[in-house]
Amino acid sequence: MLRIKDLSVCYEDDAIFRGVHLEAEPGELIAICGGSGCGKSSLLKAVNGIIGEEEVVLQGEIQMEGRSVWKESIGERSRWVSTVFQNPKTQFYCTNTTDELAFALENRCVEREKIWETIRRCSKELGTDHLLDRNIFTLSGGEKQLIAITASVCMDNKVYLFDEPSASLDHSSIRQLQKILRQLKAAGKIILVAEHRLYYLKDLMDGLAVMHDEEMEVFRGKDLAEKNLGEIVRRYGLRTMEEITEKDLEDLEWIRIHPRGKGRYRTEKAHLLCREFCVSYQGEKILDLSLGFDRGIHFIIGENGVGKTTFVKQLSGLIHGRGRGLYRGTPIKRHYQFMAMVMQDVNYQIFTESVWQEISIVSKDKRKKEEVLRQLGLLEKRELHPQSLSGGEKQRLLLGMTALSEKPVVVLDEPTSGLCKGKMLQIVQYLREMEKEGRTVLVITHDYELIRTCGGRIYEFVKEKKC
């Protein structure tokens, strides 16, 4: 059993949470949810020992099979606990996917043949064998997530910690994640999953832990029945427990695009025109199309690795390729003059030493900056270093900067990954405000709840067989 008893975590004088109690038996999955920045990641870090490397004050106790976890080093804990982080790139050590799966096993001095047997078996069982022997830097965010999950499963530890594992996954990959979690449960593993998107966990979880106002309430048994779950969702403002499918979005305009098929889509009199975009990598064509967008909100969806992020990177000038972007008939040469972008990994876009300095990059208007930070729930954190914020808080900061920039084209790559329902609704408000301002907004997302709530035009990047 994993037992967390009266656990409190404080950063300097700021309490993240206090008096948390949680127990999990072998074969149980506990979903941990709550508002963005409520302390879900801090709780997982307290279990795996990483939080001990930071300037924090810990009180309480964590026990694994009756022994105190805090008496063990991180290396000793790694023998029984595996973690999949919110940003999988932070846990990679190798550039090749197969090497990454082998890395931890090699450090345990596992025999070479046993390592290969484990990699082949786990990747086949998890449906990730098509990602073997690939350059990690060429994978999509979702594909990186799947490699991180596979690497953790290869370790065959007793406890598995997942921090927002669905954040970058398409709907097919989320079903794959469900299968993986079910297999881990059947193998008697203890699983803690910090998540906002809860629908895929509804039939898997043995407990639902809600973090709210520096405390945690744990629901089990009959509390997890359909009727009671609905009440919990309403009371705490959680994401929906029901899966949203394509049928739920059928009232929106939906355009299917083959990104490698030399297609031309909505290019007549387009406000923003992407003309003859073409990108290749190592002789393989990744992108080949022409595509136009009017003013308003446009959602770009599709499977992991189909080319969505590649498309917006070429549009924003971050990668080289053939073709040209035009805004209102004018060729886009200095991309920063026309467009603002929030990347999938926002850490690449943080440059200063405080939240206030960061938002001051795009505006000198003190009143506007304070109002935006207040709306985003970041005003009290304006003196903090941006890298000390949670993943969701960093995204909100970058989105606020995008809104303040007033640039006519806005590109957002997975803006709601790591965000609770309240913050997702705030994103919807910003998107609608930018639409009213006459901007062209492109949103890459797998979040159907965002699309259903906001509304807009959908562009689905699909493989050739679906077109």
TrEMBL record:
Q: Please state which protein family the record places this protein in.
A: Belongs to the ABC transporter superfamily.
Membrane topology qualifier: Peripheral membrane protein
What PROSITE patterns does the record point to?
A: ABC_TRANSPORTER_1 (PS00211), ABC_TRANSPORTER_2 (PS50893)
According to its UniProt entry, the function of this protein is described as: Probably part of an ABC transporter complex. Responsible for energy coupling to the transport system.
Q: Which organism is the protein's source?
A: Suipraeoptans intestinalis
Q: Which GO terms describe its molecular function?
A: ATP binding; ATP hydrolysis activity; ATPase-coupled transmembrane transporter activity
Q: Does the keyword Metal-binding apply?
A: no
Q: Which parts of the sequence belong to the ABC transporter domain?
A: 2-238, 265-466
What are the record's GO terms for cellular component?
Answer: ATP-binding cassette (ABC) transporter complex
The record, for InterPro entries, names:
AAA+_ATPase (IPR003593), ABC_transporter-like_ATP-bd (IPR003439), ABC_transporter-like_CS (IPR017871), ABC_transpr_CbiO/EcfA_su (IPR015856), ECF_ABC_transporter_ATP-bd (IPR050095), P-loop_NTPase (IPR027417)
What is the name attached to this protein's record? ABC transporter ATP-binding protein
SUPFAM superfamilies with a match to the protein in the record: P-loop containing nucleoside triphosphate hydrolases
Write the record's keywords in alphabetical order, separated by commas: ATP-binding, Cell membrane, Membrane, Nucleotide-binding, Repeat, Translocase, Transport
Question: Subcellular localization, per the record?
Answer: Cell membrane
